[in-house]
Design a protein that fits this description.
alpha+beta; 11 helices; 431 residues
């Protein structure tokens, strides 16, 4: 079904830049960069870079029966599939609604089977083309190798805040009331920044965002007029044979140019009782989610509250793993854990109901997941955070940030954490 050709690449950074710019001619593009040179948390990284373009087949749907449709598509295609699951697929799993404002108008679920696929590990490039277009491999490779990109000028959009600081503090106080009443233990509360009449060059913005963040789950995604520019540090879920890996992030601290102070900030985060309790609550939720498909006694916490350092921030990450039967459908594994605990709260359904009441924007792809399925049913998905979303037809640009609210939360501090998470997005949109 696919022709596979191996090439050696000497200058990976130039090749990355060239292939990103070469992909812009296609209607469907996904560019997944692990930034392995900058990330210590790459134990479970399969590839350094994955690029897929040009849909041969695709699935696009709203939330109704979305997982059933995806199951049919994935099990019949048995090929590489790339795409996303939006947060609002929660409405397919539980009796929930998404009635908040949606400026982006993305489909709830979208996957495509690419004609052309590029996989890089170390300096080895594997090119996999569907047999129908394998005669284009050498011409495409020459074109990519010699690609000259053009820098285009564009006016940076004016960014607005959907929820004012006063309103944010008020809403977090309401969430704390729910916690003190015992409705929930923890919930992730998010707010949107947006721009209307925005005309940007998405691939240039992606390059800028990736350069200042260099995260392990960077994504540039394009589906016609829908764009995702993501600097995500978080893995949602990965399947390797019968092993499932979840790596929730809860706990954030800023970085410092002063090395001594930076170490101090890192140490303080590792000892912070509030951040640790947030993380441990979500680890418990993930263990519960994985138990729906795990074989008996196979759930383990490989890492608890480990501190990882990224260019912009320090993060507290835990790694939870399980084993599944080899007959368990990959879609069932995802459905039984979606949406991810780090972006919802505990108990999950109550948290999602309260989130919907207090937030003012439909989350859509934000706090959903982007990734891929392999032909044998393995998969790897990130959590869509630290991300800019853009609809080029209605010229609407959006990015959201959030934090976990627990009984120990101080609303003012949560607001500051949101601004810290938004820093990189503001930086690339205000140059």
């Amino acid at each position: 079904m696919r022709t596979s050709i191996i090439k050696q690449i000497e200058d990976i950074s130039t090749f990355k830049k060239n292939i990103l710019n070469w992909t812009q001619q296609f209607r469907e593009v996904i560019f997944l960069d692990s930034n392995v040179a900058y990330n210590s948390n790459s134990k479970y990284s399969s590839y350094d870079l994955v690029v897929a373009v040009e849909a041969f087949t695709a699935i696009k749907t709203d939330f109704a029966k979305a997982f059933e449709d995806l199951y049919q598509y994935q099990s019949h295609t048995k090929d590489w599939l790339f795409g996303y699951l939006s947060y609002d697929l929660k409405n397919d799993i539980e009796d929930l609604k998404s009635q908040n404002f949606d400026g982006l108008q993305f489909p709830d679920l979208y996957f495509f089977q690419p004609k052309k696929l590029f996989l890089i590990k170390d300096n080895t490039l594997e090119i996999q083309y569907l047999n129908m277009c394998d005669d284009e491999v050498e011409d495409d490779f020459d074109e990519i190798t010699n690609y000259e990109s053009e820098i285009t000028d564009y006016e940076l959009p004016e960014i607005n805040q959907r929820i004012s600081k006063e309103k944010y503090l008020e809403k977090v106080s309401k969430m704390l009331e729910h916690i003190h009443r015992g409705d929930i233990y923890e919930a992730n509360f998010c707010m949107e920044f947006y721009a209307k009449d925005a005309q940007i060059n998405p691939s240039q913005i992606y390059e800028s965002l990736n350069a200042i963040s260099e995260p392990p789950f960077a994504v540039y995604f394009k589906n016609k007029d829908n764009f995702l520019i993501s600097a995500s540090p978080e893995r949602y879920l990965k399947k390797i044979d019968t092993k499932i890996i979840s790596q929730p992030i809860k706990g954030t601290a800023k970085r410092s140019f002063d090395l001594e102070l930076d170490e101090e900030l890192k140490l303080n985060l590792s000892k912070d009782a509030k951040e640790r309790s947030e993380n441990i609550m979500i680890v418990d939720l993930v263990r519960n989610d994985l138990s729906h498909t795990a074989t008996k006694g196979s759930i383990q916490v490989e890492e608890l509250c480990q501190i990882y350092t990224f260019k912009q921030v320090h993060q507290m990450i835990s790694t939870v793993v399980s084993e599944v039967e080899n007959t368990t459908s990959p879609i069932q594994i995802i459905k039984s854990t979606f949406p991810m605990g780090s972006m919802t709260g505990a108990p999950k359904i109550s948290a999602m109901k309260i989130i919907e009441e207090l937030e003012e924007t439909k989350r859509g792809l934000y706090s959903g997941a982007v990734g891929y399925f392999t032909p044998n049913g393995d998969f790897d998905f990130n959590v869509v955070i630290r991300s800019i979303l853009y609809n080029s037809t209605n010229q609407y640009l959006s990015f959201s940030v959030g934090s976990a609210i627990t009984s120990q939360s101080i609303p003012e501090n949560e607001y500051e954490e949101c601004l810290l998470k938004a820093k990189a997005m503001f930086e690339v949109l205000n140059k």
